[in-house]
Structures are given as C-alpha cells and as structure tokens.
Amino acid sequence: RQGVDLKELLAKADFVRHRDVATVPDYMSQVVSALLDPDAFKGAEVKSLPRFSKLLKGFRKGELTVFTGPTGAGKTTLLTQISLDLAGDNHKVLWGSFEMRNEVLIRKMLQIYTGSTLAQLQDTRRENLEKSIADLASRPLYFLTYHGATDMKRILDALDYTVKVENVEHIIIDNLQFMTGGSGLNVWDRQDQCISELRAFATHHDVHITLVIHPRKEPDGQRLGLSSVFGTAKATQEADNVVILQMDSVGQKQLDLMKNRFDGKLGNVGISFNESLGIFLENGIET
C-alpha cells in the first residue's frame, strides 16, 4: 500500500534468536579469559590443604562435589577443617549436619579453631571458653537446625532462603542418606531425585555444594572407586567433582580426586591426622 515490498523486507530481516540458544561469539570473552588467565577461574582455596586445593583448583561456585570415604576415616573432621578454612577467608558456609548434632559439630570446630584437645577445652576457664566461642562466631558459619531424616522440600526451602538472604557461597550436606525420606518413591529413586535437585540448586544459585554419600560396604582396607559410592551411578554422573578419603588396612590415608570436570586433572594427596592440632595435614608439610 505504501510502496513497500513485504517479501523483500522479510528477506532482509534478522530473526530473533531463542533466548536459550547461544553461538560461539557469545562466549568469546569467557573462553579468552580462561585461556589467558586460568587462575581467575579457580575456586575458593583450602589453605590448610594446599596440594589438594591446587589439584582441585579450589571449590568453584555452581558445582557439586560428592565426598565419600569409609566409616571412621574422618570425613566429618576433614569437612569441618575445610569449612573453617573457607570461613576464615570470609566465604560464607552453611552446614547441613543431619548425622552429627550442631552442638557436637561446633565443639569439633572449636577444637580445630583453638588447636586444643577435648580435654584441654574441658579444663579451660569458663570466661576464656566463652571468648573462644565468640571468636569462632565471628566467622560466617551457618547451620541448618534439622537432625536425622528430613524432608527434601524443607531442606531446599531453607537453602534457598539462606542463599538469598545471607549470600551463602558453600553448602555442606552430611549426608545424603538422611535426605531420602518422605516422597513415596523407592530408596534409589529418592536418592536420585535428591541428587538432581541439589545439582540444579547449585547451578541455579551459583553456589558450591559438597554432598557426603556413604560408600557401599567394601572389605576393610580396600581402595574405593567411583563405583563404591552408595546408590546408582547418578551421583557420580551429576557431580562435577568426586573426592574419596581413602584409608588402607594400616590406617594410611589419602585424599583421592577421582573426578574433576573443570579441567580433568586427577590425583591423590597423602594426609595424616595431627593429634595436637586436631586437623589433617598433607604428608611432608609441617605447620
């Protein structure tokens, strides 16, 4: 009507790309930065475990780490140590300790924080003990108040609120087996559902989640592998990282990085428990 060739106009028009579809140029700056400055993409470091931290490249936001190891190897102690390291660098950490009560977990933290044995803490004067607890409280540590088997929806609601309001960066869940009740599904389906929901939560909220999963029953001292993680293969498939606290028949321990989606680098680091400090140290490193 106004002398406009509609066919020609449509032929010259650019189509609007779907909002969920990208092309190579959309990622140019990220790819260039990752190649020229790889350290910029490292995650939060664990300073008390420098070799392991270097191997893992730190705990990166948006990722899921599955952590396992035999009963009695020290999984909770090690994760307590890691959480104190992260909080000491002002990374906000949220604990979901379903197996160990929070007051017991905090007592373990206090032992590590003060470098004291339980007996030494029990001999400390009340005012000094309260001062140490107040000092520990200055670190950005948060705790879910749930204990024992808990409905997954309640957990996710609490995680969602705390991440949005407190800006939590790292979540530790100990352990998966306490989160698989109440859905009416069989145990394997419930576990897979929980893993999928935590995987999606980490990605959507750009936080790191460390999820403890007990291993299958294996002979004492036998080295654990990816197939040793309890449940279906979904846990190790969904995880960005899989870390196993290995313990042999004579009690020697290693931190074994069995999966590292970030750059594929795998390996292990020998560690020993230092009784006087109450922490794990990498073999050959003194403090």
TrEMBL record:
**Domain (SF4 helicase) ranges:** 38-287
UniProt xrefs under Pfam families:
AAA_25
Q: Which InterPro entries match?
A: AAA+_ATPase (IPR003593), DNA_helicase_DnaB-like_C (IPR007694), P-loop_NTPase (IPR027417), Twinkle-like (IPR027032)
An example Gene Ontology molecular-function term: ATP binding
Give any single GO term for biological process: DNA replication
> What is this protein called in UniProt?
SF4 helicase domain-containing protein
What is the originating organism of this protein? Pinguiococcus pyrenoidosus
